[in-house]
Amino acid sequence: MSARGGAVSSGQEPRAADPLIAPRQFADLAEPAAEPALARATGFADRAALAAQLEALAFRGWPALRAQPLDGWVLRDSAGATRRGNSVWTCGEVADVAMAIGEAERFYARAGRPSTFQLTPVSRPVGLGLALDAAGYDGDSGPTDVCVADLAALVTSAAGITQGTAVRTRQDDAPDQTWLDVGAAGGMSMFGPYRSASVAILSKVALPVVYVTATLDGRPVGVGRGVLDGEWLGVYSMATLPAARGRGAATAVLAALARWSAGLGARRAYLQVEEHSVAARRLYAALGFLPVYRYTYRRRPAAPATPAQATST
């Protein structure tokens, strides 16, 4: 849930939108939090180190169905479910970037999917964005901000907002049909056409998890998933039915996730929010989430059909 133009340092003049280099205005969120604020919320004084930690957490919180190491990269394939699960994780070094890009392209060609790279401010090697430019990849897409919050403060702020509302929540150890249906109807395509693959991904998470469903007047209206990784709560799969938005369901789900993880020793929370999710961004800002960095995706366009291919289709 990145700045347009790339989130990877090129080793030359940095792109102005690199969130580790140039501050920018987050739509409906504050500017990227200053290091002192991040240190208070997370214990990390260095933004790049925090970004690397958050990428490792997300790698475990939403694992790919199939993962193939390539030096320090990981080629991920999840039968089309989510861009994250079907893109190259680039948080480690590779010996030869051109050869590694070619190997990634062959991997995704065999899987029947476009070659896609997830780019973050800690992607490696430095200059990967330029290498993808040279290889003909599309520009950045799917800009998503990664945000963090102090968990104790989140518990307090969410409780204050939900006090007196009619929303109730329940917790489960696994997603039931209702949870999946609400997720799909709330806009998460991974639980619609990609449901079987997504459920398989959920079963691969080797960490404590909880699935929260919010009800209003006895009807399920919102869902969310929590992953506990050390002292971090990962917030995933937040969705609310369109007719119930603005009535406190998402806040109630977040409050339940925060209480659950706090009881297990968590001290911090992270989540991802896409640039276009305006209402969600406002809610997370109100609850004290601080933006840390942005990631994007770079995709290799499909090759144009040859004359022979065009006449045979």
CATH topology of the domain at 148-294: Aminopeptidase
- Count every helix, treating DSSP H or I runs of 4 or more residues as helices: 10
CATH class of the domain at 148-294: Alpha Beta
Topology order in helix (H) and strand (E) letters: HHEEEHEHEHEHHEEEHEHEH
- Summing up helix and strand content along with how strands pair, one would put the structural category as alpha+beta
Basic shape: globular
Please, what is the average pLDDT? 88
β-sheet strand percentage: 15-25%
Folded structure, characterized:
The structure is a single chain. This protein has 313 residues and is an alpha+beta fold. The chain has 10 helices and 11 strands. An 11-stranded mixed β-sheet has the order 1-2-3-4-11-5-10-9-8-7-6, sandwiched between helices. A hairpin with a 2-residue loop joins β8 (219-229) and β9 (232-240). The longest helix is centred in the N-terminal third of the chain and has 15 residues, at 47-61.
Secondary structure layout:
Elements: H1 35-42, H2 47-61, E1 66-70, E2 73-77, E3 88-89, H3 97-111, E4 116-119, H4 128-134, E5 141-150, H5 151-162, E6 167-172, H6 177-185, H7 195-204, E7 209-216, E8 219-229, E9 232-240, H8 249-263, E10 268-274, H9 278-286, E11 290-299, H10 307-312
Parallel strand pairs: 3-4, 9-10
Antiparallel strand pairs: 1-2, 2-3, 4-11, 5-10, 5-11, 6-7, 7-8, 8-9
Helix pairs in contact: 5-8
